[in-house]
Amino acid sequence: MTTTADDLRAPWRGRADGAERERWQAVADDLAARLAPGAADRDRENALPLEALEEIRHSGLAELLVPARHGGHGAHFETAFHVVRTIARADASLGQILGYHYLNQACVGFYGTDPERAARWFADSAAGQWIWSDAFNPVSPDLELVHAGGDAEYRLGGTKRFATGAAVADIVITGAVATGGPWDGELVVLALPTGRAGIEHLDDWDHLGYRASASGSVRFDQVRITADDVIGVDTGTPFSTVVTPGVQLLFGNIYLAIAQAALAQARELTLARRGSWFLSGVERYADDPVFARVIGELLARTTAVEALADRLNARYDEVVGLGHATTADDRAELEIAIAHLKVVATEVALDVTSRVFEVTGASSTASRNALDLHWRNVRTHSLHDPVEYKKIEVGAHFLTGAVQPISLYT
């Protein structure tokens, strides 16, 4: 089938139907059941989750969003976000890697300018069950992309921190402003095999949470770049920049998943508690109205976040489906709506993962339970970008209609 420029700009069309959602939810549920038992051990080991990533590859989820005409499953972002949420409830680190995979792989569609090259990227990714990551942290020092002769040969140098999943991925997305050559002065978006000569994964991630997320730094030492590595140029069009609200939507879904996981574990621990508090007048802790009230409050707030996330997951497909017809207003409306989710998902997840201990009691702090893993994960990742600025973003738009400048955070 011939790939047209319009196909390139909008590889995803329409909305997920019930059959699609049901099919992939079943796959995600099965995979999550197999991954969940090892989550605490992966966290303690702070090691690369290589075996778990192989499970994800074998499940078929790696090519979920690749268009069917290129050998993928042709699913939609709504389905992908639900899949990520399911995996993140089992292991937030793995959910983050999978979510980043979907959005980095999607850069082929968002930034691509060559239909033939885009078709090749998608087809090769589907055939190889590639996992995609990125080294695009905008607060790290900029990389240098210097023309090295020929029509389009460059050398890439520098270091990017917090490159989640890069050390276990097949492809890493990165970019730099070119110096010299055909792309002089332009921000070139690159897709590079992670094992290419000159790419070094520093394995320096040792943080409070997300310890199985392979989030170490990546060093580029005079890496050879040719035209075949170029996805496109970031020109800041409304459609190409829709990928960034997608990243923020991913975060909201993962924070929701962490809160849901904490509540589910708290329920198990509370039901397993022996006896009751001596002033309660009941026989079991699970029957104590004080604890029921706490759980009820946390569950209700989490359910509200879920409703907002579900609505925005579907809305994201609607905007993405506009392709190159996406307007600045379309993009701004989506950005602000997702910023609402980011605010409430962050605060609810932090509160839930902390306060579940009020119900589960002192015994739940035993290391074997790893109940603290939920809080450590959401506390670590929610510092990715300050949520206070998301509040300002929402409030300023409500008051004056102001929209923040487009960036890799907005």
Automatic annotation (TrEMBL):
<keyword id="KW-0547">Nucleotide-binding</keyword>
<dbReference type="InterPro" id="IPR036250">
    <property type="entry name" value="AcylCo_DH-like_C"/>
</dbReference>
<feature type="domain" description="Acyl-CoA oxidase/dehydrogenase middle">
    <location>
        <begin position="151"/>
        <end position="223"/>
    </location>
</feature>
<dbReference type="Pfam" id="PF02771">
    <property type="entry name" value="Acyl-CoA_dh_N"/>
</dbReference>
<dbReference type="Pfam" id="PF02770">
    <property type="entry name" value="Acyl-CoA_dh_M"/>
</dbReference>
<feature type="domain" description="Acyl-CoA dehydrogenase C-terminal">
    <location>
        <begin position="251"/>
        <end position="385"/>
    </location>
</feature>
<comment type="pathway">
    <text>Sulfur metabolism; dibenzothiophene degradation.</text>
</comment>
<feature type="domain" description="Acyl-CoA dehydrogenase/oxidase N-terminal">
    <location>
        <begin position="25"/>
        <end position="128"/>
    </location>
</feature>
<dbReference type="InterPro" id="IPR013786">
    <property type="entry name" value="AcylCoA_DH/ox_N"/>
</dbReference>
<keyword id="KW-0288">FMN</keyword>
<dbReference type="InterPro" id="IPR046373">
    <property type="entry name" value="Acyl-CoA_Oxase/DH_mid-dom_sf"/>
</dbReference>
<keyword id="KW-0503">Monooxygenase</keyword>
<keyword id="KW-0285">Flavoprotein</keyword>
<dbReference type="InterPro" id="IPR009100">
    <property type="entry name" value="AcylCoA_DH/oxidase_NM_dom_sf"/>
</dbReference>
<keyword id="KW-0560">Oxidoreductase</keyword>
<protein>
    <recommendedName>
        <fullName>Dibenzothiophene monooxygenase</fullName>
        <ecNumber>1.14.14.21</ecNumber>
    </recommendedName>
</protein>
<dbReference type="Pfam" id="PF08028">
    <property type="entry name" value="Acyl-CoA_dh_2"/>
</dbReference>
<comment type="similarity">
    <text>Belongs to the DszC flavin monooxygenase family.</text>
</comment>
<dbReference type="InterPro" id="IPR006091">
    <property type="entry name" value="Acyl-CoA_Oxase/DH_mid-dom"/>
</dbReference>
<dbReference type="InterPro" id="IPR037069">
    <property type="entry name" value="AcylCoA_DH/ox_N_sf"/>
</dbReference>
<dbReference type="InterPro" id="IPR013107">
    <property type="entry name" value="Acyl-CoA_DH_C"/>
</dbReference>
